[in-house]
């Protein structure tokens, strides 16, 4: 029985624990909320702050292998634990790079990974030196998450909305499509990639609207996307599960946007629609076992269930019965007691031979299945 | 959030709880072993004896809906809880009938369900009155489980091995094949059946060797088997998930062997290989929701992982790495610390288009994947 610790207790931890029960492992979770989604599915729940050095250090010393389900953790403690012989996946150095968007972008550049042209802006005042890059996206170096810490600067008149802390100013790409590719690396260096997923965003909330797999792109673009994702992940030289987000521009160029070194929202469809789900894949990696088969069983569509606008408080699910009448639809609720506008409360996956049918069904679901209070 | 209680904390409860996390439910488990497979995956674990009237009554009063993962529970308490307005699934009357093989066989007879000819034997001495039925199977009325409480009486010389308590003496069928059909009934009376699975038994341990879906039988036999299973389940007039085990004899007649009113070993393949797994199906029933789609996504084979002969103590899994290299194979370990010969320690499922490939792979797995100590 390998003792495995997870820093963070959100829905990603929850789904990781659902899969954990299939493997010979004893699970530990640390989170500062005893009612978090993962709290009741582990062997040992530890109430604690994953950003606090001492808390992470003490927690990590109780396990054989340590992983994360969110990047915002105390990396100093992880580096200390690595020195003490604890297996930390991904390697703390990866988190060190990824936690700061300035380091992340510089890393892409140093490794010849195509990414949108950018400048580093130490302060808001410095933005005026880079008017040539506008329209651009301003990204806070540290602390951004799920649409926070990101703002669009179209013209010089917008500069006041920029961040006054060290940030990245990134030339705005004319986006044709957004893709994500999951890449898995075993402890022995074996590497496999899942086929890309194509993401459609809700512009208002900057949250995923739905995603389909396979992406509706040419075989050439698919090969390029997967090759690029693997190349980037290999540059990090670390075992783990990585989600690589990218853009295709109007000229079919591919640009890396971001990477998350953990199970990811863009991999939820793999639970039912692929032979080895992203969660099973990470368990194989954590256990020091061979990787699984990332191939799809069938095309799929994944839709996040987001707290509806105008509703805050105890969550209720409207239209659940109609949803459950759909023949090939899978429900995943995250066990969060309270909803609020834009909060990720669950997701649903549709499987079927024809993507056209799936998108029609998804539109239907969006009109009927709502998280209210 | 519906509060749902499960009596029993074995592997069936464990897999039920893995699926539970997708639904709006708060889970309660009662079992007399704090280290049982289901203990760490529920919201509330209650240490208690599921055969004890007071324990079951107190436990049941804390939930909205109560179900079982093993038949040997206190039915008196369930009947009292039903009177008090708790939803008990399956209805306690079903358990009352099924717990006693004498009642079970009589129920088949009364409902015109084909089952092997039988006599009721109040004592061992009474066996001599039924020599005309030999060769026969002697089954203890109450308390048999997983091969215990069942003995074969071939000739008059074997009668001493018969049970001295009320039992059923059942004419031995010349078995061609053993099948199982899962049937689901919703709280509104909706009914669906999964396609039959064909079971191959290890004669020595009287435990399932492996099972395949679809069964290798004629369409006519498949229709007969599914129709018969539905007819039997309808006679019980209760919501729930039911596993109907049956024999096909050498003349292609189908005979009902047993029924279990719960999730069942014969439905494990549905987790990956069917749109709605047996565990998801039961959650839909418990939540008062519509039934799911029982159709297969792909043919499958399921193999129980049984504690190897000659090994008792802390479990180790030999050949796990080779197993995890198989492309379409799924692992399910039950989290039991100790192994012993014949103990169910986990199962594996294989998916693929051709059953011939699956059986070849299964033979390979049986030769390499072992639970030892």
CATH topology of the largest domain in chain A: D-amino Acid Aminotransferase, Chain A, domain 1
CATH superfamily of the largest domain in chain A: ATP-grasp fold, B domain
Strand content of chain A: 25-35%
Main sheet properties of chain A? 9 strands, antiparallel
End-to-end Cα distance of chain A = 42 Å
Largest interface: A-B, 39 and 38 residues
Mean pLDDT of chain A: 95
Question: How many domains make up the coordinates of chain A?
Answer: 3
Given helix and strand content, the structural type of chain A is alpha+beta
Keywords:
homodimer, 373 residues, alpha+beta, Rossmann fold, D-amino Acid Aminotransferase, Chain A, domain 1, 3 domains, 9-stranded antiparallel beta sheet, globular
Question: Would you summarize the structure shown here?
Answer:
The structure is a homodimer of 373-residue chains. By secondary structure, chain A is α+β, with helices and mostly antiparallel strands.
3D architecture notes:
The structure is a homodimer of 373-residue chains. Chain A has 373 residues and is of the alpha+beta class. The first copy, chain A, folds into 3 domains: 2-88, Rossmann fold (3-Layer(aba) Sandwich); 117-171, ATP-grasp fold, A domain (Dna Ligase, domain 1); 175-372, D-amino Acid Aminotransferase, Chain A, domain 1 (2-Layer Sandwich), CATH 3.30.470. Chain A is 25% helix and 31% strand. In chain A, the strands form 5 sheets. In chain A, strands 10, 11, 12, 13, 14, 15, 16, 19 and 21 form a 9-stranded antiparallel beta sheet that branches. In chain A, strands 3-2-1-4-5 form a 5-stranded parallel beta sheet, sandwiched between helices. In chain A, strands 6-9-7-8 form a 4-stranded antiparallel beta sheet, with helices on one face. Chain A is globular. Chain A starts with a strand and ends with a strand. The model of chain A has no long low-confidence stretch (mean pLDDT 95). Chains A and B meet through helix 1, helix 9 and strand 19 of A and helix 1, helix 9 and strand 19 of B.
């Amino acid at each position: 029985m390998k003792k495995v610790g997870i820093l963070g207790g959100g829905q990603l931890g929850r789904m990781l624990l659902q899969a954990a029960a299939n493997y010979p492992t004893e699970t530990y979770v640390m989170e500062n909320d005893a009612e978090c989604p993962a709290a009741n599915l582990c062997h040992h729940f530890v109430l604690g702050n994953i950003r606090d050095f001492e808390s992470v250090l003490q927690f990590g010393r109780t396990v054989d292998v340590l992983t994360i389900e969110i990047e915002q953790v105390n990396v100093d403690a992880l580096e200390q634990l690595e020195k003490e012989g604890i297996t930390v996946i991904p390697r703390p150095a990866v988190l060190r790079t990824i936690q700061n968007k300035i380091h992340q972008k510089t890393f892409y550049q140093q490794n010849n990974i195509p990414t949108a042209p950018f400048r580093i802006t130490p302060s808001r005042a410095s933005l005026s030196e880079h008017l040539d890059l506008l329209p651009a996206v301003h990204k806070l170096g540290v602390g951004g998450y799920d649409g926070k810490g990101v703002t669009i600067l179209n013209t010089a008149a917008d500069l006041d909305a920029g961040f006054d802390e060290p940030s990245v100013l990134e030339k705005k790409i004319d986006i044709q499509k957004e893709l994500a590719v999951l890449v898995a690396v075993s402890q022995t260096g074996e590497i496999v990639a899942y086929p890309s997923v194509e993401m459609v965003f809700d512009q208002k909330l900057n949250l995923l609207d739905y995603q389909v797999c396979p992406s509706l792109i040419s075989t050439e673009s698919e090969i390029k996307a997967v090759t690029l994702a693997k190349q980037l992940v290999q540059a990090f030289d670390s075992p783990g599960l990585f989600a690589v987000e990218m853009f295709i521009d109007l000229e079919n160029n591919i640009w890396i946007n971001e990477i998350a070194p953990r199970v990811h929202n863009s991999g939820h469809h793999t639970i039912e629609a692929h032979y080895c789900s992203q969660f099973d894949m990470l368990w194989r990696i954590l256990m020091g076992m061979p990787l699984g088969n990332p191939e799809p069983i069938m095309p799929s569509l994944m839709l996040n269930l987001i707290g509806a606008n105008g509703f805050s408080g105890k969550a209720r699910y409207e239209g659940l019965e109609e949803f459950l009448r759909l023949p090939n639809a899978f429900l995943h609720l995250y066990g969060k007691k309270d909803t609020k506008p834009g909060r990720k409360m669950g997701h649903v996956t549709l499987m079927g031979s024809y993507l056209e049918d799936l998108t029609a069904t998804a539109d239907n679901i969006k009109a009927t299945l709502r998280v209210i209070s």
